Backbone:
């Protein structure tokens, strides 16, 4: 926020602009979303299809989470890690720079892709283990937040 505000103030007051400052804003925005995805999944705050799944029992919801994790989350994470890592390596080895004047080196933002999706995959594995343990009756429903006043823990 400080970089964005500072860039806007400098641009308006002194008519000076920096592609590097604009790009660092994009890099930081990317970092927020890529690195926070695993945390969002851990807190069960990701976007869901509650319209359909909400009608299912807790066990049914756990099964949907397991199937979704195995069929969608894990393969997508694997593909994005697999494609993202070589992009990072190429950018690192070549010292790839932005094509804009005063632009930044590109490898840090390319590194965010495999790292972010590796974290998301690890959290997905954790959630998968918890859902299976719930179905086996070993733990309470992990999808219920302890501070949710509308649901009682199992």
Residues:
């Amino acid at each position: 926020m400080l970089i964005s505000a500072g860039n806007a103030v400098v641009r308006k007051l002194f008519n000076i602009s920096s592609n590097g400052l604009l790009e660092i804003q994009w890099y930081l925005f990317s970092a927020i979303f890529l690195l926070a995805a695993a945390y969002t999944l851990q807190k069960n705050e990701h976007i869901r299809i509650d319209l359909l799944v909400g009608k299912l029992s807790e066990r049914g919801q756990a099964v949907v989470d397991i199937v979704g994790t195995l069929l969608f989350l894990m393969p997508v994470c694997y593909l994005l890690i697999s494609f993202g890592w070589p992009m990072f390596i190429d950018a690192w080895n070549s010292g790839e720079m932005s094509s804009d004047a005063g632009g930044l080196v590109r490898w840090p933002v390319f590194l965010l892709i495999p790292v972010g999706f590796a974290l998301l995959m690890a959290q997905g594995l954790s959630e998968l283990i918890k859902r299976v343990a719930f179905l086996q009756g070993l733990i309470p429903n992990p999808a219920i937040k302890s501070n949710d006043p509308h649901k009682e823990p199992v």
The two ends are 41 Å apart (CA to CA). The CA atoms of residues 130 and 136 lie 10 Å apart. Residues 30-135 form one domain.
